[in-house]
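Same chain as my last thread, 242 residues:
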Amino acid sequence: MLLAPTGSGKTLAAFLTSIDRLMFNPAPEKKSRCRVLYVSPMKALAVDVERNLRAPIAGIAAQAERDGEQIHMPVVGIRTGDTPAKERAQMLRAPPDILITTPESLYLLLTSQSREILRSVDTVIVDEIHALVSGKRGAHLFLSLERVEALRTAKTPLQRIGLSATQRPLDEVARLLGGGELSPSGRKWRPRPVEIVDAGSKKEFDLRVEVPVEDLGRRARRSPSPTTAASPRRSGRRSRIG
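reply #2:
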């Protein structure tokens, strides 16, 4: 669970470890290609994230080429209500490495043949999680995440990353994101452990204002202005008439 101010780079921070793993490890077989799932509450944000991932991926690839390192260029796919049927079918035949979607589209994936591409997912990123936790969309999404967990073939737990600039209270949001699991005895339901990274506190500054003289106001009052200085008196006598 990551709390950080807007514009601080928390979305990229959530992706970087996964991008590094995707690019510098051998690519798995085609059916197990999709390993990162990004969920956005808004289609517009999903489109922005898909576009914003191009620059860091291209930058890492360029540096790897200069260093002579072999990489796998990850494919980023987007699945929303606006995705044409042709692209959805193509995605099923050739799953992307990173899949960007919305809560509603994730539900549709899980209820169709396309759910097969989610079996290899090892990381899920939920952005702007504060927009989901207090309503039905959040409850629906967290249920979908449990379905993804049950669908997966990997034995390691699904890594869930929640992002927001305003999520509160953190403990409660973390509990919803992590979900629950059975205890080793299989008799008790317990919440999964979630690590909270709170980078949302404001920075404190030790600020002082120092003036080169003791009192600028007093200095201004003591210094006569050239336009208001007293004029010298004229000399001479007055003359009388009469």
